[in-house]
Specification:
The complex is a heterotetramer. By secondary structure, chain B is of the alpha/beta class. Chain B contains 13 helices and 16 strands. The longest helix of chain C is centred in the C-terminal third of the chain and has 21 residues. Classes of the chains: A mainly beta, B alpha/beta, C alpha/beta, D alpha/beta.
């Protein structure tokens, strides 16, 4: 019962079980794995060193023109590595229910 | 080796296969030595060293890596061939299943040899039988000529767009691989015309894709059914390619087996590999004595031609199936296929009737099958001395038998 | 030397590895993968051995990869890569392929130290130009943390359990990188997810190597090692600081030390041993070594019955470090 | 008569453990049991399912559970991740760990049968243990008319070496809190297999 649309019949499958659509795990919303905490980032404190970005195992940190711009909560599993890695204390883990801007980027 | 017209040559089976490889000119050939197929790869290596083939040979460190490298190269869109025997086929078998599942058109020649233990380097079909469920097309050849012919045909079959499966071509260890025999090699241009250029339907080097995904129960069954479908498409492609080869070679290959003197035969043998030659000689002898005998020599063992076998054996009183291997705890694999095919046939149609059957195990570990032993099989069959539910062994020393 | 911003720009332009995969929260493996994929700015084919990374990122019909990717089996990543690399050379020679490409094999420690070692050794000895990356999390994690040749001495795993007659893995771990160097390949190195700059530099050198290259990358495992997910990078850092996991590279047989540990914080300075952080500072934070320690009011002490083992582990780390210094042509500091 | 239960949880929340303890308790009551997870790479946080079969006759089935009599949802966030009530018999019971009202759960899942909402997380906090699985086990013991002591004994045999005395005590307390949380509900009638409301 995982996130699945209609399952294909055998005749509809690619020869050799090849998967042609790259990066299709995006459809799986692993954000649901968070167990109560999620990261948010304080724009004032963020020095854009990107240490959070390089250590994110998903990836779930959004950058624009190499600038940290918050989180892809659809996939972030809430591991907290970014909060540990942040040298300027810009990232903090907050309760899941806390209302935050779309990507947790606190202006 | 300039060849004006088709010429007869003295070639061992291994050399004949090497000639086929030279004309196929595969891009990549991973090789690992194992008796009795080694002369295939050493002869071919000399050809490459002489610039007679543009192949890149990989001298891998095991047969497991030979098939792994073959899978890698084929998934990169290269034309790939390799060869092995016995223990080598056993070691790489894990990857053979995967090559078939990935639908990669890998050509593999197998110098059929007994499986250990005890270790034995001589011929039988136990290695090929072991691989019969791996999802490969399996073709057995009788002699150097057939080894050459079917290796060329196997390349076309593997790449056929409705097949796209790896193909195994067996030639009997020593009896065929190492015995010099007369064989006719196609002129290079004719051979290359027949083989054609390879346009890979897929290449990892030019396309983004994930090959070899992780299947959960929700998709594995469907992927396997799709693989069975590919094997169901082989028969038609096989006969189409035989016709195309006949135009180039004038050698009349037709259908999944050769029916030898079967038109009015009352008793028949079913056999694969080099022993079929000996059996044909015995059939000729008995025919001269006025006895209505014949034999079926099977080329295509996978996919097994059930309907065709059941049809041709529907007009014979009794049949002995010769197996050069044994499914321990049961009967010979060829016998199991034949009986299953006959059992599922509708009888009485076009006055067909179910023949009496018997399974004779022969030639394990290189034990020779002599003409007198084949004659005895025909005699026993005709005298009704052979039962369907018992195993018989030709050429085995047993207590109490009158040597 | 690439800066993080350049790497981020690359991922923005062409993302090669996507979220939504099934690796545990805080897994080290995708950190290795992303760093490698972003550090290589060239068309590539990835060859992945069976293991956590492969299983969790390609559950049909989904895939986290958007570069050509292939998995065949557990023990043959290097052999499959050899086949692809050879096909590439032939097809390029025949003019059927023109672009310049690299071939990157990813495998865990089980797939590299143990079951895949033979294929790796063959590929290295044959000189195929491939980049083999071992994400080393020191046990068979996909099957639930069973011991491998990379598991450290004394560690609990499901196959080296703790009991009256069992106290973790009895043997020392295999020094695979050294064995790889013995294949006379142009480039081999050890790296860690805690030192991205060092890892990126080593990946670039691996790409430039004219022949096989090998990176053994320490990749921590929150479930198998037993520490909170957010400490994943710190656990690797402490392994490096304690000289347990030295960072070095071997270029055409010449050994070069990449980093000589010095204390980064007062806390580290307080627990600094002869060459690096005292090994207990790393061991005591992990569940797989919990049986060697006991906790008294927030302080963690070595259990008396395991003092000898811990001392032996510390000595082994120091002896290995001294051997490494010697190979890197560094004088061994005389004890003050 | 056979009762089939499907547990919905995420990896690391202890669903498989409590499903096994439930089976062990039912076995102690002289019943035939099965307990099995949905096999697949379990990862902490990822959705997973565990199953029980409890019967007064030997159980021969070795297939999945497709029409459970009871669905237990340990993690309420799963309600929007997957169809938790799929296949649940109309006369079955949907048991959800949530502080929301049962009506809310019925609306969200579209299940029109009986729904029981139990704030197991609060019970866990009250007993100072981490997860809601143990209080929910207490609820089920009560629903299936198994004595609390049998559950506590079973829990002890499984965990006495693994947990410190304090933590073990807290878990037994959580079990009791769960058990008490449904005192007024009438129990499952094992003979008729119908969830008597």
């Amino acid at each position: 019962m995982m996130a699945k649309g209609k399952l294909k019949a055998w005749e509809e499958l690619e020869v050799g079980a090849v998967v042609l659509e790259g990066g299709s795990t995006q459809a799986i919303l692993t954000g649901g794995w968070r167990t109560g905490k999620k990261p948010i980032v304080d724009a004032q404190k963020c020095v854009n060193c990107l240490l959070c970005w390089i250590h994110c195992p998903e990836p779930a940190i959004v950058t624009e023109k190499a600038q940290m711009r918050g989180y892809d909560y659809a996939h972030c599993k809430g591991c907290g590595i970014c909060a540990e890695a942040c040298p300027s204390g810009a990232i903090s883990m907050v309760p899941e229910e806390r209302l935050v801007p779309k990507r947790g980027w606190i202006e | 080796m300039t060849v004006a017209m088709k010429q007869k040559q003295l070639l061992t089976g291994a050399e004949a296969v090497a000639q086929a490889w030279r004309q196929i000119d595969p891009d990549v050939v991973p090789v690992y030595p194992i008796t009795p197929q080694t002369p295939i790869i050493t002869t071919f290596s000399e050809m490459v060293a002489e610039g007679l083939a543009s192949t890149e040979i990989i001298n891998v460190e095991s047969e497991h890596s030979a098939m792994s490298a073959a899978v890698g190269a084929a998934s990169a869109g290269a034309r790939v061939a390799t060869a092995t025997s016995s223990q080598g086929l056993a070691l790489m078998l894990e990857i053979c299943y995967i090559a078939a599942s990935l639908r990669l058109p890998i050509l593999m020649n197998v110098g059929a040899r007994a499986l250990s233990g005890p270790i034995n380097i001589h011929c039988d079909h136990s290695d090929a039988y072991m691989a019969r469920d791996a999802g490969w097309v399996q073709i057995f050849t009788e002699n150097a000529q057939e080894a050459y012919d079917y290796t060329l045909m196997a390349q076309r079959l593997a790449e056929h767009d409705r097949v796209r499966l790896p193909v195994m071509v067996m030639l009997d260890g020593f009896t065929t691989t190492h015995s010099a025999d007369v064989a006719e090699i196609l002129p290079d241009d004719l051979a290359r015309q027949f083989i054609g250029e390879y346009e890979p339907p897929f290449s990892l080097l030019t396309q983004v894709a994930t090959i070899g995904p992780f299947d959960m129960p929700d998709y594995y069954f469907e992927h396997r059914r799709a693989q069975q479908h590919a094997l169901e498409q082989v028969r038609e492609a096989f006969e189409q390619i035989q016709r195309m080869f006949k135009e180039k070679s004038e050698r009349p290959y037709e259908g999944p087996f050769e029916a030898y003197q079967m038109d009015d035969a009352r008793t028949a043998l079913v056999v694969m590999g080099s022993a079929a030659g000996t059996a044909k000689a015995v059939v000729d002898m008995l025919r001269r004595e006025g006895r209505r005998v014949g034999l079926i020599k099977l080329w295509l063992f996978r996919p097994f031609p059930r309907a065709a076998i059941a049809r041709v054996l529907g007009y014979v009183d009794s049949v002995a199936v010769f197996d050069r291997g044994l499914s321990y705890g049961s009967f010979g694999p060829l016998y199991l296929e034949v009986t299953s095919a006959l059992y599922s046939r509708v009888w009485g149609v076009e006055n067909s009737r179910r023949p009496k059957l018997a399974n004779i195990i022969y030639g394990l570990g290189g034990r020779d099958l002599r003409p007198d032993q084949i004659r005895k099989a025909f005699d026993d069959l005709e005298a009704g001395r052979l039962r369907a539910d018992q195993l018989y062994y030709a050429g085995l020393r047993e207590e109490g038998d009158q040597r | 030397m690439i800066h993080l911003k350049e790497l981020a720009r690359r991922e923005e332009k062409t993302q090669k590895f996507f979220g939504g995969h099934g690796l545990c929260a805080g897994c080290g493996a995708p950190i290795v993968v992303r760093t490698v994929l972003n550090a290589i700015d060239r068309p590539m084919v990835v060859i992945n051995a069976t293991g956590c990374l492969e299983v969790a990122t390609t559950r049909f019909p989904y895939t986290a990869w958007s570069v050509p990717w292939i998995h065949v089996a557990f023990e043959n990543a290097a052999a499959v890569a050899s086949g692809i690399e050879t096909a590439y050379r032939v097809l390029r020679r025949k003019g059927k392929i023109s672009q310049d490409m690299v071939f990157v094999a990813f495998a865990g420690d089980g797939g590299t130290y143990d079951i895949g070692f033979q294929a790796l050794s063959g590929a290295l000895e044959r000189g195929h130009r491939l980049i083999y990356i071992c994400y080393d999390n020191e046990a068979y994690m996909n099957t639930g943390n069973q011991r491998s040749g990379a598991t450290p001495r004394g560690a609990y795993t499901a196959t080296t359990p703790i009991g009256s007659r069992g106290s973790g893995k009895p043997q020392r771990r295999k020094d695979l990188t050294e064995i790889v160097v013995a294949h006379h390949i142009p480039y081999a190195a050890q790296a860690s997810i805690s030192d991205w700059q060092d890892m990126v530099m080593k990946i670039e050198r691996a790409v430039a190597a004219d022949g096989p290259s090998f990176l053994n990358v320490l990749s921590t495992c929150t479930r198998g090692w037993g520490f909170p997910a957010e400490k994943a990078v710190k656990m690797a850092h402490l392994a490096v600081q304690s000289c347990y996991w030295p960072l070095y590279e071997v270029i055409d047989g010449a050994w070069h030390l990449s980093y000589e540990p010095e204390p980064r914080t007062a806390e580290e300075r307080a627990k600094w041993g002869r060459y690096g952080l005292d090994i207990t500072e790393w061991l005591k934070l992990q569940g797989r070594f919990a049986h060697l320690f006991q906790k008294k009011q927030e302080e963690i002490f070595v259990r008396p019955e395991h003092r000898e083992l811990i001392a032996e582990i510390q000595r082994e780390v120091e002896r290995d470090w001294e051997k490494l210094l010697a190979k890197c042509g560094r004088a061994i500091p005389v004890l003050a | 008569m056979m009762l089939e239960i499907r547990w919905h949880a995420r990896g690391g929340q202890g669903a498989i453990t409590v499903a096994e303890i439930l089976a062990a308790v039912a076995l102690r009551q002289g019943l035939y049991v099965q307990s099995f997870p949905e096999y697949g790479p379990e990862r902490s946080g990822a959705p997973l399912h565990a199953y029980n079969r409890i019967s007064d006759e030997p159980i021969k089935l070795h297939s999945g559970v497709y029409e459970p009599d009871i669905v237990v949802v340990l993690d309420p966030t799963l309600l929007h991740a997957e169809p938790v009530a799929e296949g649940l018999k109309t006369e079955g019971l949907l048991l959800v760990n949530t502080s929301d009202a049962a009506k809310e759960m019925a609306k969200r899942t579209g299940f029109r049968g009986r729904v029981l909402a139990i704030p197991a997380v609060q019970l866990a906090e009250q007993a100072k243990i981490r997860f809601a699985n143990v209080p929910m086990l207490g609820v089920l013991l009560r629903l299936l008319n198994f004595p609390l002591e049998a559950g506590q004994e079973e829990f002890q045999t499984v965990f006495s070496e693994k947990l410190s005395p304090a933590v073990l005590e807290a878990n037994l307390e959580a079990l009791r809190l769960g058990y008490e949380a449904v005192s007024h509900e009438s129990v499952v009638d094992m003979k008729r297999g119908v969830i008597a409301s």
